[in-house]
Amino acid sequence: MKEDPLLMIPGPTMVPSRVVRAMSAPILPHRGSAFSALFLEQIERLKKIFQTKNDIFILCGSGTAAMEAAVSNVVEPGDKVICLVNGKFSGRFYEIAGRFKATPVVINFEWGSAVDVEGVREALATHPDAKAVTMVFNETSTGVRNPVKEVGELVKDTDAVFIVDTISALGGDEFRTDDWHVDMCATGSQKCLALPPGLAFISVSEKAWKVIEATDSSSYYLDLRRYRDDKAHAPYTPPVTLVYGLKASLDIIDEEGLDRRIERHRRLARIVREEAQKMGLTLFPSSEDICSSTVTALRVPEGIDPGKLRGVLRDEFDIIIAGGQAQLKGDIIRIGHM
Ligand code: PLP
Q1: How far is the CA of 41 from the centre of ligand 1 (A)?
Q2: pLDDT of res. 185
Q3: Which of 69, 196, 237, 242 has the lowest CB atom count within 10 Å?
Q4: Three-point CA angle 207, 213, 218, nearest 5°
């Protein structure tokens, strides 16, 4: 295998050399005015990617840090959290809620199918005291795109905070935080934003702030109130070089145009789906209309070992694709289009 194989995994993605170069600039003092101006400017620019007017915070950590920030800031022990689970990453919200001693109510949907909106309606009616609802927009483990807009329409009329993980889609697929009534949107740097791993981002709505202010959170490093109080540079040393990289990445997105970028992902995903099916592979998601634009999950024909197939791609073609995760380990392949 070459030193620089073609990464076609669903993150981390290949980082443009322009971003790498930007990250080699000298370190600025993180409490100085030059860094603060840069930091605040990137936060404003991220609002366009999130499609939000809400607060956005840059956290030091991988995407899971933003998931944990969301849950841990709105729950106290015993609080009920409805977790909509149809894959590995949506299951992570359930684990986090349990870790913070909330009472997670898991609503399971088959892996490979999308979250069923009627099931959510029932869950909200059965648990009107739920303090939060968690969901993953783009379930990377199954290649399924979930109906956040439709679920948001239901959650907005309740007291629950709507928490959505967009880690493997934001910047590569259409996502409208405000129009879809998402109170806390969590994402990460190493997927569609084409940055190295290490930054997490979270948006916080007014509705979420009201809950956060009334919650005795047990989070310390990820206590969002402290980030709000220290907006200009984050309360703890931010990863300065990654913020330089973020600026370069947002420049590249501006130049391409977000709409064109989204369309590019759709086109690549469609081509991969069409060509893979011609070769005898089948889509893992239960129907084409719920397929993700950023990662395609496929079953390989009988008699072909997905692990061996990945090995051939790696050893003979220098192309890295992903296998299945958790219960799908050894069953499917996943191709990233990010
Ligand atoms: N959620 C989704 C949908 C993901 O795809 C991933 C990573 O693949 C994660 C969460 C976890 O993100 P991280 O590894 O950046 O913490």
Answers
A1: 26
A2: 99
A3: 237
A4: 120
